[in-house]
Write a structure and sequence with these properties.
heterodimer; A: 228 residues; mainly alpha; 9 helices; B: 269 residues; 4-stranded antiparallel β-sheet; 10 strands; binds adenosine-5'-diphosphate; binds magnesium ion
């Protein structure tokens, strides 16, 4: 049966959409943040000369990059209880899976940023008497993150979109809310298009904000900085 | 009798099968300017880098102010603070202004407050004639200016010795002079310097001692006059002849008496 498209259900359900949007924003922001910090730690392990540290971190990255995120979400929510680890809240389970996954990707982004920095700068820092950690935090990391902002932007946008996968374990985020509204009202086209617009608003703002950060922190005289 | 600042005893270093340093012994005394010359690949950089433990020696000893820097009780970072290095490729921190390049180690290593460190940085920049570039980033400076900032960065640490590894080799010819001038000023002020260089004019004018390295050993050493005018080792002569031919034409610091055994630059019209 064909139903006429009724856009008025959008304002009717606006508070419900916004609740979903809020959850999506929360999940993406937290997992991006945890993934960012975790990515730096794992990325540092990946450039370690200690074969054990390097080996374990490499297995981690390959495992999380090489398997579907959906399976990882199921493993955390459905698999862990079998080992006696119960995560009551699907939201928390989803957050864990997304963060672990994003950390793997972000570690590679960070590693790429580190490798864009000349060894000479680290040697200069060491030759002035700085410790390895001082060189890392004051010379390497600030430049590595700056150089890696474009791939970071990609990863953040991907995370916002992929956060919809946690609907499969019952997290009431934007996609699941949309699906429920569409089932209740039968107005799939307006509902799904509106959900898409809301996602786009998030991703587009993210890319604009990061572009601004990129410009704001560009290193004068380096490629990519605005020439006068 | 003054004690040497640096004493190197039978220093050895290999990379795999490549024996780069085959037993180097030398001393550097306070306020001395020691220049090291030698063909590319003879181990000059490796020698300097071993002094700073940027490369770990395989054998022999390095005494800094009488202490073996390989000793477990010695903090290598403390040694490095007193023995800074200036690199061929400047190696400034690209994300920091000239002033902050200098201030960073003062704050992190010498534990100075920000204001004091920046004031010290400004004084150092003034000494290399770059006060007006304090807020410029390395990418906005010429190679010569970058190297002067790097020298200021080392000077500001108030080290006992500064090691220079071919500080002008990456520079366009017209920028070499400004860096050499800064180094000459530094030498005149009494800084102890070990300088790997191909600038024979600088070596002749400033060096107390010239060391010629060849295939991982010190083939000859002496005063600039000993080495440049009366080299004893045939390999020194060959090297000097070649280097003077390459750079002699451009180097106004090399006078005509500066020709090993009278058959150097002038043997071809
Ligand atoms: N990190 C390294 N790994 C392997 N070989 C090296 C390394 N550094 C230097 N070498 C080798 O050591 C030799 C001496 O190099 P170097 O000390 O840089 O000479 P110089 O500075 O006199 O040109 C060269 O054969 C070079 O290839
Ligand atoms: Mg060299």
């Amino acid at each position: 049966m064909v139903m006429t498209i009724d856009w008025t259900i959008i304002p009717d359900y606006l508070p419900v959409f916004f609740k979903g949007l809020e959850t999506t924003l929360l999940i993406s922001a937290i997992s991006i943040l945890i993934g960012f910090v975790g990515g730096i730690l794992i990325g540092m392990c990946r450039i370690s000369r200690n074969p054990l540290v390097y080996g374990i971190s490499s297995v981690y990255v390959e495992a999380f990059r090489g398997t579907p995120l959906l399976i990882q979400i199921f493993l955390v929510y459905l698999g862990l209880p079998q080992l006696g680890i119960y995560i009551e809240s699907p939201l928390v389970a989803g957050l864990i899976a997304l963060s672990l996954n994003s950390a793997a990707y972000q570690s590679e982004i960070f590693r790429g940023g580190v490798q864009s920095i000349s060894v000479g700068q680290i040697e200069a820092a060491r030759s002035l008497g700085m410790t390895y950690n001082q060189a890392l935090f004051n010379v390497v990391i600030p430049q590595a993150i700056r150089n890696a902002l474009p791939p970071y932007t990609n990863e953040f946008i991907t995370m916002i979109k992929d956060s919809s996968l946690v609907m499969t374990i019952g997290v009431l985020e934007l996609t699941l809310r949309g699906k429920l509204i569409s089932a209740t009202t039968g107005q799939s086209i307006p509902v799904l298009l509106f959900v898409a617009v809301l996602y786009f608003t998030l991703t587009f703002s993210t890319s604009r904000i990061l572009r601004y950060v990129e410009k704001r922190f560009a290193i004068p005289g380096m490629i990519g900085s605005d020439q006068k | 009798m003054t004690e040497p600042i640096i004493e190197i005893i039978d220093l050895k270093k290999s990379f795999g099968d490549n024996h780069v340093l085959k037993g180097i012994s030398m001393k550097v005394f306070p306020q001395e300017v020691v220049t090291i010359i030698g063909a590319s690949g003879s181990g000059k950089s490796t020698l300097l880098r071993c002094l700073n433990h940027l490369n770990m020696p395989d054998g022999g000893k390095i005494l800094f102010q009488g202490h073996d820097i390989n000793d477990k009780d010695i903090d290598i970072n403390a040694v490095r603070t007193q023995m800074n290095m200036v690199f061929q490729s400047f190696n400034l921190f690209m994300h920091l202004t000239a002033k902050r390049n200098i201030a960073l180690a003062l704050i992190k290593v010498k534990k100075m407050g920000k204001a004091e460190a920046e004031q010290r940085a400004m004084e150092a920049l003034d000494k290399v004639g770059l006060s007006d570039k304090a807020d410029a980033y390395p990418g906005e400076l010429s190679g010569g200016q970058q190297q002067r900032v790097a020298i200021a960065r080392a000077m500001a640490m108030d080290p006992k010795v500064i090691l220079f590894d071919e500080p002008t080799s990456a520079l366009d010819p017209e920028l070499i002079g400004e860096v050499l001038d800064v180094m000459k000023k530094l030498a005149t002020s009494g800084m102890t310097m070990v300088v790997v260089t191909h600038e024979m004019g600088f070596a002749r004018e400033m060096a107390d001692k010239v060391i010629f390295m060849d295939q991982g050993v010190i083939a000859e050493q002496g005063t600039p006059e000993d080495l440049f005018v009366n080299p004893q080792n045939p390999r020194t002569k060959v090297f000097l002849r070649r280097i003077l031919k390459e750079v002699g034409a451009m180097d106004p610091g090399i006078p005509s008496d500066f020709v090993p055994n009278g058959n150097g630059v002038h043997d071809k019209p």
